[in-house]
Write a structure and sequence with these properties.
single chain, mainly beta, Metallo-beta-lactamase, Chain A, Immunoglobulin-like, 2 domains, ten-stranded mixed beta sheet, 24 strands, 12% helix
Length: 373
């Protein structure tokens, strides 16, 4: 008997202005951003018919807060899992929520009886606004049929954009030249890309190999990639541990290893609170203590010196259960691009000048960040 690996975690809620992403498993994620809770392709199943789940989901439905918005990329059973969606909608209603679900065109009939307050269908490049969030449906190279005779159903990915972040979930897809257009039009900061179910080679007509995913990431031009669609269900012939090994090789070969963040089920990526421009007037000091995050309480101090085009941040990252990465956005009042960064008095190259974003990888304890604009 095979043991099911992985560990389930109880989520810690992000505060207003903070963004946190948790990996449920397979292609499923739970996102907290702009005061909303969002689920993408959530699947909590132990079995998909004859396929036994190999790794536990990272969170349990009953431990989630009320989910405001659910995105489903296509009708395949490993992405649109009706029992998971029904359980999540019912749990959200019991907690006072009015959950909305977004699906591709001609998929509404598969989810209309699951307890969602509204079902929204989107075709490629169509948008839906939910408060401060904008969801844009994006193209993919895949297919949408749930059974043999419903090939008319849509499929694709989504770019989710809020006030302070943008995220791309590719759904299921083979490599195609549309990634360049998605990057050009929508410029997502974080790319969730599938890397499994590519063997036999014919499967690459509808799925990406790790090498394909790296090329897609380069085409997108996003700062950070998180791999998905591997390890949970045995959907193809490659060994279950092969996708991550090949991804590591490809990332090293293309010199992007530090931009690829591998999340295990229940792992979280915390995007630190962005500082409104009005807060960073000359001499302004911001202090936040014990802000709740998925990896424990975090504290930070930000001091602006606009006259000398500098902002200094002192961030305390807990050593216990430290995240793989913290994305820190330090916004200049005049929206000037970042010229240089020092972390703990050493030059630091991992930043995005235009987005005013600094990526802190593998750090814990007290971290001092000085940004020159």
């Amino acid at each position: 008997m095979r043991r099911v690996h992985g560990r389930t975690h109880r989520p810690v809620l992000a505060r207003a202005g903070e963004t946190a992403l948790t990996f449920i498993g397979h292609s499923g994620f739970f996102l907290q951003t702009d005061g909303f809770n969002v689920a993408i392709d959530p699947n909590f199943a132990s079995w998909l018919y004859l396929l036994k789940r190999q790794r536990r989901p990272g969170v349990r439905v009953q431990d989630l807060p009320a989910v405001d918005l659910t995105l489903v990329t296509h009708a395949h059973f490993d992405h649109l899992h009706r029992p998971s969606l029904r359980a999540m909608a019912q749990a959200s209603r019991r907690k006072g929520g009015r959950p909305v679900i977004v699906v591709p065109t001609l998929v509404k009939d598969l989810v209309s009886d699951l307890g969602f307050s509204e079902v929204v269908e989107l075709g490629w490049w169509e948008e839906y606004r939910h408060g401060e969030l904008t969801v844009t449906a994006t193209p993919a190279r895949h297919w949408g049929a749930r059974v043999l005779k419903d090939h008319q159903r849509g499929f694709g990915g989504y770019v989710l954009r809020g006030r302070e972040m943008s995220l791309y979930h590719a759904g299921d897809t083979a490599y195609f030249n549309g990634f360049r257009e998605i990057g050009r039009r929508l410029a997502p900061e974080l790319a969730l890309l599938p890397i499994g179910a590519y063997n036999p080679p014919a499967f690459r007509n509808v799925h990406m190999s790790p090498a394909d995913a790296v090329q897609a990431f380069l085409d997108l031009g996003s700062p950070t990639m998180v791999p998905m669609h591997y390890g949970s269900f045995r959907l193809s012939h490659e060994p279950m541990d092969e996708p991550l090994k090949l991804l590591a090789e490809e990332a090293r070969r293309h010199q992007i290893a530090e931009q690829v963040l591998v999340m295990e089920e229940g792992d979280d990526l915390w995007l630190a609170r962005a500082t409104p421009r009005a807060w960073l007037e000359q001499g302004q000091k911001i202090e936040v203590s014990n802000a709740p995050t998925f990896f424990g309480p975090a504290s930070y101090t930000i001091l602006s010196d606009v006259e000398h085009h500098q902002i200094t941040a002192r961030v305390e990252i807990p050593a216990r259960n430290a995240p793989q990465a913290v994305l820190l956005r330090l916004r200049h009042p005049a929206a000037a691009p970042i010229q240089s960064v020092q972390v703990n008095d050493q030059p630091w190259a991992d930043f995005d000048p235009a987005r005013e974003l600094v990526r802190l990888i593998g750090l814990s304890g007290v971290v001092t960040v000085q940004v020159v604009y």
